[in-house]
Design brief:
It is globular and about 55 Å long. By secondary structure, the protein is mainly alpha-helical. 84% of the residues lie in helices and 0% in strands. The longest helix has 38 residues. The chain is built from 17 helices and no strands.
């Protein structure tokens, strides 16, 4: 009994630290967004939103190609310490170089947004990899410490960085704080520069995950950060401000999903391999996420305390028009999260990729129709319909996988 009790306590502590880290991480992004919305014009805030969209794409690619292997394979944890350090540095530098090149060829206003991000992308991507490694190694306390450093650094940056840097100040404060947190993380993953042969071996061992998850994420771009890019290039940066502003209000909902992914996926991967039932936990997560999404959406649409204008400043008028559609998307994503988490726990990367690409087709069609209609608000409503269809795909795929698993065991 005592060993089981200690395991439960350890599990509770891990969930607590993982939740704290996601709260700090989401708080950092929320604070940066609110600060940017209040000090920038709608067009400038739209450029800030485009920079975040570019970062989200880069972050997702890194997480899919490398981070997912670190997260799901906890047994590789301590052996990968030098690999994690070397990998995070190489990926960060490569990301900075690619951003610099892309900023020279991208259409306006995307080019300007990418250029503003170039200096900070190495620290942002490096920090993301170390966070994934720490979660996979069962050390969410470290992630919470790094995210706390990031949040504290952002607050100090807002207070201390001179206003002379102009519209880029929110991005400078956010990116500089992440770079400081990344530098601090390298102390933990020492020796920083592992042997290249170890890195090559690790990449070889995890290549069966890298390609499917990368393909899967490429499909998700159209329904995620790619939406902001299309709105920015197809309409204007001010349109991005409206869409991003409404997302910002509902952003804290992602804390539940991020915590579930960081804690549930490593835990469930072991039980999935042993054929143990994980449905009850998934149902609980789904109920929590969906309830939170519905309540938050209702709160911001009604806004009884009139908080939204204070949080979003001049961008609130544009964000208000997008809010119903973004709320519908948030609720749909919460409903479908259980299916996605089940597939991730089983490392069913091909099934995930299939759903992602079907979703990409639906969202691509919605974006094209929206461009024909000529308004960002209509585009968002079409995206909400595509999101609802994607939710059904996630749940159907997970159910089909569960039936196949039972049939194989029988």
């Amino acid at each position: 009994m005592l060993p089981n009790l200690e395991k439960r306590r350890t599990g509770v502590r891990r969930v607590g630290w993982a939740g704290a880290s996601q709260l700090l991480s989401s708080g950092t992004n929320f604070l940066a967004g609110v600060y940017a919305a209040n000090v920038l014009s709608p067009t400038e805030f739209g450029l800030f939103g485009l920079s975040l969209a570019v970062y989200t794409i880069a972050q997702g690619l890194v997480r899919a190609a490398l981070g997912e292997a670190l997260l799901t394979d906890g047994s590789r944890g301590s052996k990968a310490a030098p690999v994690a350090g070397l990998l995070s540095i190489l990926v960060g530098v490569t990301g900075g170089l690619l951003c610099a090149v892309f900023s020279q060829i991208a259409p306006s206003p995307l080019a300007e947004a990418t250029w503003q991000l170039t200096t900070w992308i190495p620290g942002l991507l490096g920090l993301e990899l170390v966070r994934q490694f720490a979660f996979g190694s069962g050390n969410p306390r470290l992630v919470a410490a790094l995210d706390g450093t990031w949040l504290l650094g952002l607050g100090l940056g807002i207070l201390l960085i001179a206003d002379g840097v102009g519209p880029s100040k929110p991005l400078v404060a956010w990116g500089l704080a992440a770079s400081v947190a990344f530098a601090a993380s390298l102390i933990w993953v020492r020796p920083v520069l592992g042997r290249p042969s170890e890195l090559v071996q690790w990449l070889t061992d995890t290549r069966h995950l890298a390609l499917p998850y990368t393909i899967e994420f490429m499909g998700s771009i159209v329904s995620g950060p790619g939406v902001a890019l299309v709105l920015g290039v197809g309409f204007s940066a001010a349109t991005v401000a409206g869409f991003r502003g409404s997302q910002l209000l509902l952003g804290p909902i992602s804390i539940i999903y991020a915590t579930a992914g960081a804690v549930f996926v490593p835990w469930a991967s072991k039980r999935f391999a042993l054929g143990q039932d994980i449905r009850n936990v998934l149902i609980t997560i789904s109920v929590l996420m969906t309830s939170a999404a519905v309540l938050a959406s209702a709160f911001w649409i009604v806004d009884p305390l009139s908080l939204a204008p204070d949080l979003l400043g001049a961008s609130w008028s544009a964000a208000r028009a997008f809010l119903p559609a973004v709320a519908a998307i948030t609720i749909s994503n919460a409903l479908g999260a259980a299916g996605l988490l089940y597939l991730r726990a089983g490392q069913l990367a091909r099934r995930i990729a299939a759903v992602r690409w079907l979703s990409a087709a639906l969202n691509g069609l919605a974006l094209m129709l929206g461009l024909v209609l000529g308004t960002g608000e209509a585009t968002a409503l079409l995206l909400a319909l595509a999101s609802a269809a994607t939710t059904l795909l996630w749940l159907y795929s997970a159910r089909s996988s569960a039936r196949s698993e039972k049939g194989g065991q029988a």
